[in-house]
Amino acid sequence: MIDEAFMAMGGFGKLQKISYFMNTLINGGAALFIYCFVFLEKEPVYECLEGTEWKECATAAYCALPDAERSIDWHSQESLHNLIETFKFYCEPPAMIGLIGAAFLMGVVIGSLTLTRLGDVHGRRPIFMLGLVMHLGFMAGIMVVTNYILCYVLVFIFGLSLTARYYVGYAYNVEMQPKSHYVLVGTSMFLIESVAYLSICFYFMYVSRYWKPLQIPNIVFISAGVVFLCFMPESPRFLISKRRFEDARDVFKWIGKVNGLSREEAERRLDEIVFDGEDREYKDPNPEAAFSTLLKDA
Residue 157 sits in which domain range? Predict the structure, then answer.
């Protein structure tokens, strides 16, 4: 019956296309940092002075020499201006670098146990919005942070935000569509992420070795997503699962209005639909015709 309501309100109409586009854009923007992680932890090319010549050397050899006899080859395409440079992790134990990824994964695990569950209790939209706001807060912090302890905290928050923005956001994106377009919505989201990863590789190869300018589209798209979500309703599928049928009907009427239906037409079409578990009497859209048919049958 839920899909019948979606089709009655215009199917994959204007609202669904806008929602699909914006939610895909949000995840594509955030992917510019997620898939950038491997580059942010990449060590640069080290050089050691051997006699009168500078030669590429391993990390252990670089760290064993005094500053006057070692340097970083910033002319190499493989030397990136990333978090290793920001926190001067050149000669720190590998665990210091590994803790960045560990903090992220810890955030994902804890977020999966908490925030995703809240999406099933309090609704998709508020938790999705929380994830976007957390992501923006993280980006604002990671762009200026110089303390590695604070970096670990920020990356942990980033892991938390991913579960709300990506997992709950994906559910919200799909639930705002008729089932006939589930495959399109899900597949295109993953394709956009693949494009984002290729764009990151292209950026570092041909555009710049500084990571921060790459995050400008990320911040812009997520900010646009916050504004967009302010005008969006809760998922009607979630409302129906919580037996909030009248709220769900209001959302469907709004969807119908955005898709070009008059309020009267939207109400007429919805009156023909009774959701599973809903205690609602069927309202015939044309009672006079039904009465005439009944007389003829008699």
Answer: 2-40+92-240
